[in-house]
Amino acid sequence: KEVSIKTLRNYFYKLEKLNITINYYRHLGINMGTEIYYALRYSKKDCYNLLNQHFRNKKTERFQRRVNAYIKINYDKKDNVKNGECLNNKYIKEERETERKKRVNKLKLKKYAKKCNFDNEISSFIISLNLKKETTIKLFKFIIKEKYYLKKENNCNLQKTLQNKKRDLILILRKAQKNLIKEGYDQRKIETQIQNTYQKYKNKPHFILESNKYKDFDQIIKKIKDNTNKTESQKHKDNMKTNIYNILLDQLHNKTNTTNLRSKIKEYLNKQNKLEYKKIFNNQYYNEIIKLIESQNIYKNSYIN
């Protein structure tokens, strides 16, 4: 079977290390490789003998290492001489066999615990109790069973908690829906968007319920208001309220502090069930706000023109 040039080159390197050949290396340049010229130090027959002896020595060394490892694991000669023990002592053999079985059982129990996904600390503690193998396995099975029932109970509690949170979420969204409709936004669009919000947050209701921690609810209401138009009647009411507010502010701006005046006008208009332009033209709103200002001692002058 033909060998590659690289393999052949490695053979020559090895033969030189074994003092079988004398090698001369001629470098052909960058990325061009190397030529190897060689000469045998001995006759071909002697070279074969040296190679065979090298492989025999390696085989003997490997065998001796296996023997030493076996003796080290199974027989402690130093302890036997020191303690005056006999390697053929029946009781020593039984004791060692017992220790071997214990080690094997511990390894099996560790493998079983790992298969059952036990925590390392818990499994190590249970195994260190040195119970019988069957007893330890029964204990593992009992713990697994208890963990299963505990997990099942926790899942039930989580489901109950989630159901309660869903009910709270429905109440909050219904209240928000009523407020938005009351403010004059289109009822059909509001109902659709509130339903979409519920579908999105029904499995994570805490984002809305914990409004002091999360800003989702405020952002949802703002988004609904931006995407939903008010009804024409509500727009008309809002425009009327704005116009009346501006007229009253212009009429009363020299009567008191502007900041206080604005808040008083808004407060007054919000209390009115129905706003009418005729009441601004006959000065009814004007006179009532003047009286309100007088009663709260915010009036600038004691004389009203």
Automatic annotation (TrEMBL):
Task: Kindly state which keywords UniProt assigns to this record, in alphabetical order.
Answer: Plasmid
Enumerate the InterPro entries for this protein: Borrelia_plasmid_OrfA
Q: Which domain of life is it from?
A: Bacteria
Pfam families (UniProt xref): Borrelia_orfA (PF02414)
Q: What is this protein called?
A: Borrelia PFam57/62 partition protein
What organism does the UniProt record list as the source? Borrelia bissettiae (Borreliella bissettiae)
